[in-house]
């Protein structure tokens, strides 16, 4: 009887001391499509512009009809429009994923954040590190024919 | 004689307890919230990220006003609030004079310096597109960076509105979640409490109506509690206003209480006000467009 009591007290104190706090869905997420895998080496991130907030400049983003790959000093570079959903310094790389003749491009984030009510159009500049075999580029802002200069 | 005196004392006691808080004779609110944005015809996907908490936040501010005013100021006439959600939040509606008919205008969408976005695709409302006035005395814009320090121009939004509350930094939302912990006898029970970003709206209204704090204190305290203290996220809430003299008395709108609020537009025209003011509170390390401070 005495042993059972000691055992019961031991179990209760074990339960009392055990860690059992936790949260359900704290809400931190990446703000790009994480359901597909991306090649982060094909296009190397060079820089990202500040958010475009001027109305005429915003129009120029949406009116952009072709994305060009340009050669400069023996290096191929590309500039394309996109949107940032957390803050610009949180972007670590350009992720690409091929769908037939279309290259889907996402801005890969360093860390998960909560949802921000943030509207930020940007121009992204990258170096082509591996041959791009696509007719179209799809970013958050649109689908653009791919051309070369 | 003794009975009459007792009766009079009884009536006096009843009257003393029946005193109703004096508040505005009427109050009205309209809300605009976008959760799901129209598709970009080029990609077939929404042209801006979904804001999963915006409608909850919008409903919360409206419902809390209804609850608090009906209990604290039962004599205040409160017409049925009007809510615009998702596809209804168009640029044409927002820039029309519909909102001028309401004392409090609540807007929840994406934004950046001097503008917020509307529906359908590719619609923007800049500070030169929208003026808050008519019967609108207060507005709240829950969108990032609209009043960013050092960059935003707040004055074009004003046309009689007393003050507008919003953010100088990025603003954040999170859905309701539960935190579980041990409790009770020998700690063997399990208890929980909930948190949600719409508690900001709930507590702002509670602080302003029930606790009778000034509008800025009400808002700042609510943001501090549920965004910075609870989640540890840096943020910079801000209030913007014009100040000066109303009927010979100095009026600083950031400290306006609901109970003693001025029931008319103020400082509508140049020369009617002394200056343009703003207050903000930097909580932790706020994020701005490029990085976190």
TL;DR of this structure?
Chain A is α+β, with helices and mostly antiparallel strands.
What would the keywords be for this entry?
heterodimer; A: 149 residues; alpha+beta; eight-stranded mixed beta sheet; 2 helices; B: 293 residues; alpha/beta; Rossmann fold; three-stranded antiparallel beta sheet; 5 helices; globular
How would you name the oligomeric state of the polypeptide chains in this document?
A: heterodimer
Uncertain residue segments of chain A: 14-19
User: Shape of chain B from CA axes?
Assistant: globular
- The helix/strand class of chain A is alpha+beta
Order of helices and strands of chain A: HEEHEEEEEEEE
- Level of helix content of chain B? 10-25%
What does the model show?
The complex is a heterodimer of chains A (149) and B (293). With 149 residues, chain A is an alpha+beta fold. Chain A has one domain. Chain A is 17% helix and 41% strand. Chain A is built from 2 helices and 10 strands; from the N terminus they run αββαββββββββ. Chain A has helices spanning 2-17, 55-63; strands at 22-23, 43-48, 67-72, 75-84, 91-99, 102-109, 115-116, 120-128, 136-138, 143-148. An 8-stranded mixed sheet of chain A has the order 2-8-4-3-10-9-6-5. The model of chain A is unreliable at 14-19 (pLDDT under 50). By secondary structure, chain B is of the alpha/beta class. Chain B has one domain (25-280): Rossmann fold, CATH 3.40.50. Chain B is 24% helix and 26% strand. Chain B has 5 helices and 18 strands. In chain B, the strands form 5 sheets. In chain B, strands 1, 4, 5, 10, 12, 16, 17 and 18 form an 8-stranded mixed sheet that branches. Chain B has a 3-stranded antiparallel sheet with strand order 6-7-8. A two-stranded antiparallel ribbon of chain B has the order 2-3. In chain B, helix 2 packs parallel to helix 4 (199-210) and helix 4 runs antiparallel to helix 5. The longest helix of chain B is centred in the N-terminal third of the chain and has 19 residues, at 54-72. Residues 13-18 of chain B have low confidence and may be disordered. Chains A and B meet through helix 1, strand 1, helix 2 and strand 7 of A and strand 6, strand 7, strand 13 and strand 14 of B. Strand 1 of chain A pairs antiparallel with strand 14 of chain B, so a sheet runs across the interface.
């Amino acid at each position: 009887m005495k042993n059972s009591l000691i055992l019961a007290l031991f179990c209760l104190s074990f339960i009392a001391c055990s860690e059992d706090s936790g949260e359900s869905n704290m809400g931190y997420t990446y703000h790009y499509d994480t359901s597909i895998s991306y090649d982060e080496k094909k296009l190397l991130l060079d820089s990202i512009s500040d958010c475009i907030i001027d109305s005429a400049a915003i129009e120029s983003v949406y009116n952009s009809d072709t994305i060009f790959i340009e050669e400069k000093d023996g290096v191929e570079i590309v500039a394309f429009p996109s949107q940032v959903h957390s803050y610009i310094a949180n972007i670590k790389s350009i992720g690409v994923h091929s769908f037939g003749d279309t290259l889907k491009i996402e801005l890969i984030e360093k860390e998960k954040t909560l949802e921000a009510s943030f509207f930020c159009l940007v121009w992204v500049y990258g170096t082509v590190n591996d041959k791009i075999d696509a007719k179209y580029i799809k970013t958050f802002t649109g689908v653009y024919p791919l051309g070369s200069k | 004689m003794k009975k009459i005196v007792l009766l009079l004392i009884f009536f006096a006691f009843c009257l003393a307890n029946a005193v109703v808080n004096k508040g505005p004779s009427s109050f009205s609110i309209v809300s605009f919230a976008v959760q799901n944005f129209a598709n970009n015809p080029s990609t077939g996907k929404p042209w801006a990220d979904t804001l999963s908490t915006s409608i909850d936040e919008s409903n919360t501010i409206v419902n809390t006003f209804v609850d608090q005013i009906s209990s604290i100021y039962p004599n205040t006439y409160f017409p049925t609030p009007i809510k615009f959600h998702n596809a209804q939040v168009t640029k044409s509606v927002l820039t029309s004079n519909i909102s001028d008919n309401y004392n409090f205008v609540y807007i929840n969408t994406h934004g950046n310096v001097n503008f917020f976005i509307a529906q359908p695709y590719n619609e923007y409302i800049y500070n030169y597109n929208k003026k808050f006035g008519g019967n609108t005395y207060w507005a709240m814009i829950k969108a990032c960076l609209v009043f960013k320090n050092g960059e935003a121009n707040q004055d074009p939004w004003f046309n009689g509105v007393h003050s507008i509350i919003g953010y100088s930094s990025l603003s954040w939302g999170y859905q309701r979640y539960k935190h579980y912990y041990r409790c009770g006898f020998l700690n063997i029970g399990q208890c929980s409490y909930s948190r949600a970003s719409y508690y900001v709206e709930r507590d702002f209204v509670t602080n302003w109506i029930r606790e009778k704090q000034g509008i800025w204190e009400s808002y700042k305290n609510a943001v501090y509690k549920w965004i910075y203290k609870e989640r540890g996220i840096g943020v910079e809430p801000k209030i913007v206003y014009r100040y000066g003299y109303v009927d010979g008395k100095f009026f600083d709108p950031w400290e306006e209480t609901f109970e003693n609020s001025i029931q008319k537009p103020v400082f509508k025209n140049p020369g009617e006000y002394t200056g343009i003011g703003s207050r903000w509170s930097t909580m932790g390390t706020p994020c701005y467009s490029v990085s976190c401070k």
